[in-house]
Amino acid sequence: MPSATPTIPGTTPTPTSAPGVPTPTPTPTQTPTAPPKPIVIPTPLSSGQTIVGYGFSDVSPHQIVRSSANVLYVSVPTCNGYPNCYANVLPMYVATSAGTASGFFEADAAHRPFPLFGAVDTIESSAIAIGGNDLVYVAYITKGEGAFVATFDARANRWFAPVSLGATVSGIWGQGREGIGIAVDASGAPHVVWSYVGSDTRKHVAYANRTAGAWTAALRIDDAPLGNSQGAIHPAMAFAPDGTLLVAWLVGNKGGGYNVPDGSIYVRASRSGAWSPSARIPDVALGGNPGYAQTSIDQGPTIMVTANGTAHVTYLDTNDAIRYWYSPDLATWRGDRQPATQLTHNPSLGPDGSGGVFIYGHGTPYGSIAGHGNNLYRMHLAAGTNGWTAFGAPIVSDNNVDCSVSTRWSQFFHYYPSQIDFTYWHDTAPDFQLVGQR
User: Which tens digits make up the pLDDT trace of 34-52?
Assistant: First the structure.
C-alpha cells in the first residue's frame, strides 16, 4: 500500500469565501419545471411520523440535523420516479417549530442547489452536517460535474453559492450507486469524502476539508489493492471524541453488480492529518471463508463512534445478513458481537441517546429472518452490554420503504443528543421523505 496519499490531478477546488457566516452569493437562475405531482400520503401514518417533502434518501447515512435552537433540518435530492431521476434539485426542509416537528417547509427555494447541465444532469446524493454559528454544510454529488458543498445559514434560513471540490466527476451512475459523506471536526470545519471515477476508469474515494476558510485539493484515500473489475465505493466517515477521523468504504465489483462475491470493507484513520494504512475488516461471514460483503448497487458500510471511543461498522454479507464489527482502539477490529441472523437491506447505524447504538433496516420479518420491503425495524446494543436485541415490532409501518434510514448523529455539534431523529424515503413516485422522532 502506498505510504503517501496522492493529490488527484486537476482537482484545484473553487475558492470559498465562507468563513464563520458567509457572504451571500446569488445562484444562477433555475429553469422553470412543471409542478410536481401531489404527495400521496400513506394512511395511517405511524406514531411519530411526519411528512417532510419531495425527495429520496439512499446509501448516505446522515441527512438530518438539529440546530442549537432545537429545529430539525433535512436536505435530500428530489426525484419523480426512482431510480430514473433527472434534473433533481436539493431543497432544505425546515421544521415549522422547535422540538418535536409537526411539519416542514422549504427555505430559500430560489437559491437551492441544482444541476448545471439541466435535464441531462442530476443531483444524485447528499449528506449534511451542522457546525458552529448554526451553519449547515450540504455535500452533494452530481452525475456529470462531481462533488460540491453548499452552506446554509440555519439562523437566517438562506443558501449560499455551492463550492466545487474539484474537477473529479462521479461518472455515469444510477441513484444508489454513488456515495458522499460529510462530518465536522471539533472546530466546526467540514470534511468530505466522495466517490469518483479515476483516470484508470475505476471508482475511487476522494477526501477534502476546509482549512482557514478554503478547501484543500482533493486527495485519493482508498489505498487497498483492487482486483479485476473492482472499485472503491460507498465511503462513509465519522470522527472519534479524540479527533481521529475514520473513513470506511466498500471494495467490490466495479459495475456495482448484485450479489457479486468479492466485497470487502476497509477502514482508514487520519490522526492530525496523517493517514494510516487502511485495515480490512477480516470477516468470516455466512458466505464463506473469508466472508464477503454485499456489493449490490445500493449497499455499503455505515460507521459511527460512541462517546466511549468505540467505533462501530455495519454492512451486509452476500446473503443479505447484517454484519457488525467494532474497534475499541480505532485500529483493531473485532467481530465477536454479531447479532442473530437477520436479513434486510440498507442497514444503518444510529445513536440510542444513552451511549448505545441502533442498527436500522427494512423488510417484514418472517421467523428469525427478514425479507425486503415493508416497514422499518431496528435492533439495539445498549451501552455496557455485549448482545444485540432482535428486530421486534416495526418502528414504522409503511408498505413502500426501500432505503437506508438516515440517522441524526455527529461526534461534534450534536445538539439535543437524547432526542432520536431519523429520516427515510417513501418510494411511490413522486418520491418523498418522512421523519421519525422518538
Answer: 334 445 555 556 666 788 8
Please name the residue that has the C-alpha cell 422549504: 106
The full set of domains in the chain, from first to last, is 49-413+420-437 (2.120.10.10)
- Each residue's pLDDT tens digit, 285-304: 544 445 678 776 678 899 99
Share of the chain above pLDDT 70, in %: 75
Tell me how far apart the alpha carbons of residues 368 and 382 are, in angstroms, rounded to a whole number. Answer: 21
Secondary structure string (H, E, C) spanning the chain: CCCCCCECCCCCCCCCCCCCCCCCCCCCCCCCCCCCCCCCCCCCCCCCEEEEEECCCCCCCCCEEECCCCCEEECCCCCCCCCCCCCCCCCCEEECCCCCCCCEEECCHHHCCCCCCHHHCCEEEEEEEECHHHEEEEEEEECCCCEEEEEEECCCCEECCCEECCCCCCCCCCCCCCCEEEEECCCCCEEEEEEEECCCCCEEEEEEEEECCEECCCEECCCCCCCCCEEEEEEEEEECCCCCEEEEEEEEECCCCCCCCCEEEEEEEEECCEECCCEECCCCCCCCCCCCECCCCCCCCEEEECCCCCEEEEEEECCCEEEEEEECCCCCCECCCCCCCCECEEEEEEECCCCCEEEEEECCEECCEECCCCCEEEEEECCCCCCCCCCCCCCECCCCECCCCEECCCCCCCCCCCCCEEEEEECCCCCEEEEEEC
pLDDT digits (tens, 9 = 90+) for 385-405: 999 998 888 888 776 777 788
Mean pLDDT of the chain: 81
Place of cell 467494532: 326
Residue 43: which residues within 8 A CB-CB, separation 6 or more? none
The Cα 136–Cα 138 span in angstroms is 6
> In degrees to the nearest 10, what's the CA dihedral of 179, 184, 190, 191?
-50
| R_g (Cα) of the chain, nearest Å | 20
Which residue, among 80, 174, 44, 74, has the nearest Cα to 428 in the 3D structure? 80
Q: Which three cell numbers stand for residue 59?
A: 446509501
Phi-psi region of 156 (alpha: psi -120 to 50; beta: other; left: phi over 0): alpha
So what's the pLDDT on residue 2? 36
266 close to 224: Cβ distance less than 8 angstroms: yes
